[in-house]
Design goal:
The complex is a heterodimer of chains A (615) and B (100). Chain A is α+β, with helices and mostly antiparallel strands and 615 residues long. Chain A has three domains: 198 residues, 4-Layer Sandwich (Aldehyde Ferredoxin Oxidoreductase,  A, domain 1); 186 residues, Orthogonal Bundle (Aldehyde Ferredoxin Oxidoreductase Protein, subunit A, domain 2); 173 residues, Aldehyde Ferredoxin Oxidoreductase Protein, subunit A, domain 3 (Orthogonal Bundle). Chain A is built from 27 helices and 19 strands. With 100 residues, chain B is an alpha+beta fold. Chain B has one domain: Ubiquitin-like (UB roll). In chain B, the strands form two sheets. Chain B has a five-stranded mixed sheet with strand order 2-1-7-5-6. A two-stranded antiparallel sheet of chain B has the order 3-4. The chains are: A alpha+beta (615), B alpha+beta (100). The site of iron/sulfur cluster (SF4) has 12 residues of chain A, from loops. Iron/sulfur cluster (SF4) binds next to loops of chain A.
Chain lengths: 615, 100
Amino acid sequence: MFGYHGKILVVDLTSETSHWIDIEKEHLRQYIGGVGLGAYLLFKFSVPGTDPFDPSSPLIFATSPLVGTRLTTSSKFAVVSKSPLTGFINDSLSSSFCATELKKCGCDALILIGRAKRPTLLFVQNGRVDFLDAKYLTGLTTAETEKTVKETLKDYVVRVLSIGPAGENLVHYATISNDGGRHAGRGGAGAVMGSKNLKAIALNGSHAISVAQPELLEGKNRLLREKSRSNATAKYRLIGTVDNLATFNRLRILPTQNFQFAHVEDSEDLSGEALQKTAKIKTAHCANCTIGCEQIFETTDSGKSIQNRLEYETLYALGPLCAIKDRNTVIKASKMCDLAGLDTVSTGVTIAWAMECFEQGLLTLKDTEGIELRFGNTAALIDCVDAISNQTGIGKLLYGGCKKAAMTLGQGSDYWAMHVKGLEMPGYEPRGLKTMALGLAVNPRGACHNRSSAYEADFAPGVDRFEASVEKGKLAAEKEDYSAVLDSMIWCKFLRNCFEDFYTESSTIYEMVTGMSMTAEELERAGTRINTLRKCFNIREGWHRKDDTLPRRILEETYNGIDKQATGLTEQELSLMIDGYYHARGWDTQGRVPTNVLRNLDLLEIVKSAKGSVK
Amino acid sequence: MTKKNVIEFTIEFYGVAQMVIGMKSLRLTMPEGTTLLDINRVLTQQFPQATDKIVQKTGGNIVLQQGHIYCLNGSIFTNDPDQPIAPNDVLLLISSSAGG
Ligand code: SF4
């Protein structure tokens, strides 16, 4: 088999056993890999209605056909499970050597079920699986865990996936870390891993990964590599995603002070342009990448050097959203999140909610154990991150994300909880980006800019970003399907502008890798299939149309937009766009997927027959 | 050229454009009827280092390089060379890739 192994490794942590299952070629072709393959496996092997922390809930690591080839930016994998934040499907992507190592172990995906009786280190060497006692790793940060595992195994070529204290403490937005600071970040995969009592996974494989047409593929790769160093990626290479901050601020779409505003005065210190000039120490890149977008920044503010990678989403959530303007604090807080294994977006948004509750008098110094949790208080931000990681003090309220915290606190505090379906909002002000507003509302993962990509439509010529129209439904659906294909092949999103005709080029590459036929139309349909299946999973888990919405603040308040114009989005406008989206997908007015749509997408069999349980 | 035949407007540079041009904004005075094509031409003349990085010559046209886009008055995203500029417009030259 080319591009795939056709095999899934299933590990039961309760019984400390493992076995292999075959996966049919046609299913691989239909779901491609990454988030698509992960969604298929989750749908097939999870028992409907099961809590994400139930031992039977699967935690899936899915590679893709491109992993292990030399194609630029393709060393990526998806982590798929039910999210403890949303109760719906979650898929996170991470990058680098772990992707290749997992595939070299001989599997297209690794499914973990059960719960280990003791803290466990899973050591996967090709087909062999060892369950090692990991008590000595308990409480270690992600970086310490990775280093210690390598030292203990006396194997410096193993690749390590691990959780930090946040995952051990079941913080619902804990990440899984790998390769020195990459994270499967959003949605709480690290908490699911923690619930399995699994501290780390060490991977060491030697299976060859062969491709069907190596020479043709190398030619295509050469072209892509060349383009990956062109103007199309200059933003990512030269400044990184932190570039967004000053632009979004100018466009009045930078969520500030828990979405009260969309602009911050005196933000110069936090801008990507300034960070680049005065705080950047180096650029790094994932394995097998010719772009290299990782911008590493340093602060020596506290007397010692703290270095960390910063992305726009981190900068937004730990910066302006909490009214923090001090870059040193943001770098420090982001480092703490990475070491604890915390999603920076959910962390920042949850803290911003708590700051607003504190300022409104709903939380007191007694609740926060003395933390003066006001907007802009840098020390409070740092203390809060620490409390969340360890589930101490105010962290006991905030560990479940802002939705859960608001449910616990009550008193109308849900008004300030900025999430969709339980997943905290990314750094795009939806009232000033209407296609994005729709994308955030309807995406099965919750408030996710990556799975939606609808912001691309709002930034395109010819689209009125302020207009809420039924036509936005088609745009959002198309962007979502495009993202599903990117995330299933898996290409890095930052390569996307290097394709002249994405579907045609990607389907050709798929054929070169796998030897299986694939047209551009079929690939596009695979994107629709994957999103529809993700939706079917959510429906099975109790989704209703009312879940496709935005936080009340967004729908009830206006903010000062461009030229101080009141900019808003009403519930009626959102509803109109949602109608357009369901219509574009061929779903009924309640967002349910009719049988004929399932049949046309070859989903009828899986949706009707999946019984759950991988045992 | 009499005063009433000219317009004044501002270009603000962000991200890579700011790095390459070396300034944050520029106030320009140009004839009425100025379009983005004219502005692209001015950029190549005043900032030779911008050629191929920010703007490129294709045939008779000078267009924005891939990866960049204009945003007119914070509202309209465009790279149409025929887009007219009005007095006191503010033109943002930003990255066309929003994702992060
Ligand atoms: S562009 Fe950045 S995120 Fe993408 S593969 Fe390269 S280094 Fe990794």
